[in-house]
Design a protein that fits this description.
Beta-barrel_OMP, disordered N terminus, Porin, membrane, nine-stranded antiparallel β-sheet, mainly beta, 13 strands, about 10% helix, about 240 residues
């Protein structure tokens, strides 16, 4: 291409670019406007969610060994540790700015185990007391310290099944028994959003149950009032206010 032809091409290109605003102004507006920006859920804690948690804890149980209907000995060594895993369903509502209230239910499995023994006269009774599974019906309330972080307290009703196995010596008589316990739970935690839908939490719970009697080999019974301390770390999937009710 000759130099003069190249100069003419550049000049024509410059005129085309210079005239483009005018041409654009002449194009009719059909009302489509700009493409909408992609949006997620609003920065709110409102809506239903599902979650799972994994943690551990310790048991600390009050117990008394009785024979003939009368207490005869305290039980030593009631304490133990183990893991807990749960599945949770819940609903939160953010009200009054940064105040959050909600309800939740969970079902959990645990192997919190405790060893114990009692001595009365010439008889020693050794026992293993193991948590099996349970559920909680709880309310919680908290403060959203920023759009992605919630500090909260919780409390409500708890139910759990425990199994106890006993061996009496001398003689070696043995037996086992399952009992269900109702009680209450108090706790606190922190939850942080990773995305609009996914959040993680760390939580502490103290649970105190009513007492129940376990029969022991050779006669008598052990009255047990369990309590547990657990720490749980979990992840929740939040469906957002679009599925709220």
């Amino acid at each position: 291409m000759s130099s003069s032809a190249l100069l003419r091409l550049c000049a024509l290109s410059g005129l085309a670019l210079a005239g483009s605003p005018v041409l654009a102004a002449d194009i009719p507006d059909y009302g489509y406007g700009a493409a909408p920006a992609a949006t997620g859920y609003p920065a709110t804690w409102s809506g239903p969610y599902l979650g799972v948690s994994l943690g551990g804890g310790v048991g600390n149980h009050d117990a008394t060994y009785s024979a003939g209907g009368a207490p005869v000995a305290g039980v030593d060594g009631i304490g133990g540790e183990g893991f807990v895993i749960d599945g949770t369903i819940g609903y939160d509502a953010q009200v009054g700015g940064n105040f959050v209230v909600g309800v939740l239910g969970d079902i959990y499995w645990s192997n919190l185990g405790s060893d114990a023994f009692a001595i009365s006269g010439g008889t020693r009774v050794d026992g293993d007391i193991d948590a099996k599974w349970g559920f909680d019906l709880l309310a919680r309330a908290g403060i959203a310290v920023n759009p992605s972080t919630l500090l909260y307290a919780l409390g409500g009703y708890s139910w759990e099944k425990f199994e106890a196995s006993f061996v009496a010596t001398p003689g070696g008589a043995a037996g086992s028994q399952e009992e269900s316990f109702g009680g209450w739970t108090l706790g606190a935690g922190i939850e942080t959003k990773l995305t609009d839908n996914v959040s993680v939490k760390a939580e502490y719970r103290y649970t105190r149950f009513d007492d129940a009697d376990y029969g022991v080999p050779g006669g008598g019974s052990i009255n047990i009032e369990p309590s547990t301390h657990t720490a749980r770390f979990g992840i929740n999937y939040r469906f957002g206010p679009a599925l709220g009710f």
